From TrEMBL:
Protein name per UniProt: Cytosine-specific methyltransferase
Keyword line: Methyltransferase, Restriction system, S-adenosyl-L-methionine, Transferase
Active site per UniProt: C153
EC number: 2.1.1.37
UniProt family annotation: Belongs to the class I-like SAM-binding methyltransferase superfamily. C5-methyltransferase family.
Any single biological process term in GO: methylation
Classification via Gene3D superfamilies: 3.90.120.30, Vaccinia Virus protein VP39
Catalytic activity: a 2'-deoxycytidine in DNA + S-adenosyl-L-methionine = a 5-methyl-2'-deoxycytidine in DNA + S-adenosyl-L-homocysteine + H(+)
Length: 399
C-alpha cells in the first residue's frame, strides 16, 4: 500500500513558492481519487506526473493505479466514510478543515494563496490549496454541501449604492461587491449552490462603514436565495482566549424554504480553561523579552496610560484568559505576555498559540516562528467552529 509521504517525495510535492497550481491539482486529485470530484483535477494532475516521469514510466492502467490504495500518513487524513462534502476558502492553515473533517466531512477543494500557509496545510492534511481565488473559475470547483470561508478581515469598502443610482444604473447587491473577496464567495455560492455556508470574520465587520458593508453582505446572501443567521461568538468558552468573531451561516431557501431550525451552539456559563492550562513548562530563553524590548513596552504603556489610553501590553494572569491573538503577534508579542519569576516576561511559543486556537498537539508546524505566529493569529478557534458545524449538520443531515 503506497504511503502519501512516499508519493509526495517521488512526485516532488514541495511548496516553495506561490501559485504552484500543478501541486494543487495533483494533491486534490489524490484526495478525491475515490469520488466523483477527481474529474476536476485529473487532467492537470496527469500532465504534471507525465512531465516528471515521461509517459513510458506509466505502465499500469489507469495511470494512477500505482498510487492505490493510498495510505494517508499525515496527521489529519481525510475521513474514510465521509457523510458530507465541503470546500475550504481562504483556508489559511486549515482551522475549518480540521473542524469539518472531525465532523466526518470530506474537503473537495481548498484555496489559500500564501505559500507558507500552504506548507503548513500540506504538512497536516496532505493537500496543497489552490492559490488566488479571484483567478479561479467557479466552474472548476466541485459540488459540495457546505462552503466554508474565513475571508480576510482587512476592512473592505463596498461601492456606495448611491453612486450607481446617480448613474441611473440598475444593480443588485451582488454587483455592489465586485472587486472584493466577498464577491468571490458570492459567485461560487451562485453557481454551486451548496445547501449551506459558514462565513467568519472580525466582529468589526458588523459596524464597518456605519454598517453599510454588513448590510450589503447580508443583502447579497439573501439575493442569492439563502436564509441567513448570524451571531458574534467568543472563543473563550473553548480556549483561554477572548476572541470575538462574527459568524454567518446560511441555508439554501430552495431546499429549506427559509424554515430550517438552526441554532448557534449554546455557550457554557464560564470559560472552562485558563491560560495556565495551555502553557509549556520548559520554554527556550529565546522567547523571553530582551531588556530593550521590555523597557520599550513599559515606557510606551506608561505614556499611553498618562494620556488615558489604557495599557499597551497584555501581561496575562495565569488563572484568567488572554487577549485576542493577532497576526501581528510576531512583531513584539505585546498583546499576550507570560510573566516569569525573576525574569522579563516571555512570548507564547507557536505550540501554545496553536493550543490557544484549539489545535491539537499533533498539529505540525513546519514553518519559521514568524510565519507560525502569523498563521495562528489569522486562524480560528477550531473547536468553536466545530460546534457551529455540528449545528449546521443537524439541519442538513435531516433533509
Ligand atoms: C483570516 S485568514 C483565514 C484563516 C483560516 N480560517 C485558518 O483557519 O487558518 C484569511 C486568509 O485568506 C488568504 N487570502 C487572502 N486573499 C486571498 C486570495 N485572493 N486568494 C486566496 N487566499 C487569500 C490569506 O493569505 C489568509 O491566510
Amino acid at each position: 500500500m503506497p504511503n502519501y509521504s512516499d508519493i509526495r517525495k517521488k512526485l516532488k510535492v514541495n511548496v516553495s513558492k506561490p501559485e504552484q497550481t500543478e501541486l494543487a491539482h495533483l494533491t486534490h486529485f489524490l484526495q478525491t481519487i475515490d469520488n466523483g470530484a477527481k474529474r476536476y483535477f485529473e487532467k492537470e494532475a496527469q500532465n504534471y506526473v507525465l512531465s516528471l516521469q515521461g509517459s513510458e514510466s506509466i505502465v499500469e492502467e489507469p495511470w494512477y493505479q500505482g498510487y492505490l490504495p493510498l495510505k494517508w500518513d499525515v496527521p489529519f487524513p481525510p475521513p474514510e466514510n465521509p457523510t458530507f462534502k465541503f470546500i475550504d476558502l481562504f483556508a489559511g492553515i486549515g482551522g475549518f478543515r480540521l473542524a469539518f473533517q472531525n465532523l466526518g466531512g470530506k474537503c473537495v477543494f481548498s484555496s489559500e494563496w500564501n505559500h507558507f500557509a500552504q506548507q503548513t496545510y500540506e504538512a497536516n492534511f496532505g493537500e496543497v490549496p489552490f492559490g488566488d481565488i479571484t483567478k479561479i473559475d467557479e466552474k472548476e470547483i466541485p459540488s459540495h454541501d457546505i462552503l466554508v470561508a474565513g475571508f480576510p478581515c482587512q476592512p473592505f469598502s463596498i461601492a456606495g449604492v448611491s453612486k450607481k443610482n446617480a448613474l441611473g444604473k440598475k444593480h443588485g447587491f451582488l454587483d455592489e461587491t465586485q472587486g472584493t473577496l466577498f464577491f468571490d464567495v458570492a459567485r461560487i455560492l451562485k453557481l454551486k449552490r451548496p445547501k449551506s455556508f459558514l462565513l467568519e470574520n472580525v466582529k468589526n465587520l458588523v459596524s464597518h462603514d456605519k454598517g453599510n458593508t454588513f448590510k450589503v453582505i447580508l443583502g447579497t446572501l439573501k439575493e442569492l436565495g439563502y436564509n441567513v443567521h448570524f451571531k458574534v461568538l467568543d472563543g473563550k468558552y473553548y480556549v483561554p482566549q477572548h476572541r470575538e468573531r462574527i459568524v454567518i451561516v446560511g441555508f439554501d431557501k430552495d431546499v429549506y424554504n427559509g424554515e430550517e431550525s438552526f441554532e448557534f451552539p449554546k455557550m457554557p456559563e464560564n470559560p472552562p480553561l485558563v491560560v495556565e492550562d495551555i502553557l509549556e513548562r520548559n520554554v527556550s530563553e529565546k522567547y523571553t523579552l530582551s531588556e530593550k524590548l521590555w523597557n520599550y513596552l513599559q515606557t510606551y504603556a506608561k505614556k499611553h496610560k498618562a494620556k488615558g489610553n489604557g495599557f499597551g501590553f497584555g501581561l496575562v494572569e495565569m488563572d484568567s484568559i488572554t487577549r485576542t491573538l493577532s497576526a501581528r503577534y510576531y512583531k513584539d508579542g505585546s498583546e499576550i505576555l507570560i510573566p516569569q519569576e525573576g525574569k522579563n516576561p516571555r512570548r507564547l511559543i507557536p505550540k501554545e498559540c496553536a493550543r490557544l486556537q484549539g489545535y491539537p498537539d499533533d498539529f505540525q508546524i513546519p514553518v519559521s516562528d514568524t510565519q507560525a505566529y502569523k498563521q495562528f493569529g489569522n486562524s480560528v478557534v477550531t473547536s468553536l467552529m466545530q460546534d457551529v458545524g455540528k449545528q449546521i449538520l443537524k439541519v442538513i443531515q435531516t433533509k
